[in-house]
Predict the structure.
Amino acid sequence: MNSTPLKTIDHLDSQALLKESKQIIDSVTTWKKSKLYNYDLVSGKKVAVQTYTSAINNDYWCARDSSLKELSHEKKQVYQNLLKYIVGSTVDQHKTHTEYETKYVDEIYDYKLEPVSLKNSDENTITYKGQMYYKFQFPLQRRIFHELVHIVKDKDESHAYVITLALDPSLFANKEPSFVPARYTSIEKIAYDEDKNELVWSMATCSSPGGLR
């Protein structure tokens, strides 16, 4: 798994993809530490987020990890909000991860989604191809990301994954010559242990802007 666009998705297996994603995301805290950020919340509290970098599968990966320990009495509700708005629904096409993502990522101004199915998928998963249109500031400006998004929720909803793979533009019927194809692959994990009141939110990404025009 890396940012090299896949030219076919016929070989993809839900269980195998989840296994590989787990191996990568669960190793994040062993990567080289980068900056530690502290974010101010509306409540007045601060949340610490540690960042990391690593070279995996011939690609440069960046990651962030937070236990949100500052929210000790609010973790369960925070987790439910993350499940709803970050992971999204696995049954309602109008409430997917990408649908919600467009509400908080200002650079996204249009998108097209197409449901697909992977081998060994079950009722706790949803998969779709997406064309994501971005308007960035100079010098990147207009970019299009061709993606496969595979979302997996545990049956007891104690953890969930949003797996995004870069796809080759040839897998999409419509072409957009005025947009520069960019590449993006990521793994996002949220997990909550109610007995221990432990919440983890991690994300690892590798990408390429596709040039400077």
Summary: Residues 121 and 170 are 24 Å apart (CA to CA).
